[in-house]
Fold this sequence. Notes:
Helix content is 26%, strand content 17%. It is an alpha+beta fold. It has one domain: Glutaredoxin (3-Layer(aba) Sandwich). A 4-stranded mixed sheet has the order 4-3-5-6, with helices on one face. Strands 1-2 form a two-stranded antiparallel ribbon. The longest helix has 12 residues, at 45-56. It is globular, with a radius of gyration of 14 Å.
Amino acid sequence: xxxxxxxxxxxxxxxxxxxxxxxxxxxxxxxxxxxxxxxxxxxxxxxxxxxxxxxxxxxxxxxxxxxxxxxxxxxxxxxxxxxxxxxxxxxxxxxxxxxxxxxxxxxxxxxxxxxxxxxxxxxxxxxxxxxxxxxxxxxxxxxxxxxxxxxxxxxxxxxxxxxxxxxx
Length: 168
């Protein structure tokens, strides 16, 4: 796994099924990168994320879910259990990845990139809770960030996604 990166597409991540995947696979797509958890007050956002995915996937949106157990142990399950939970309870079909750390000493290199003020001066800063969302344009630039309280149904989030999709 690549430990550093200066561009989003340089990272390689582990899919929830165990295989490695290079983010360059998503080049040219609009990405919504979300740290997720199954036992959180915001877990029902999986439903909204899936609806966004279904509505905008054909226009070029990919939602990338990264389970994390960094906040009050709200994602204690194994990758297999997480995958089953998401599929059975929310019909999740967007890409899900292996459980990672999104803060602290064990922070995954992708999240270090997303949150570091050097690589992301405008939207950098610590992940505050589960379901923080980073919006990435088709060129791999971080163009917006939304906190946990901004639901997938939020008009500002939807408008930002639609604008990013329109900018080819």
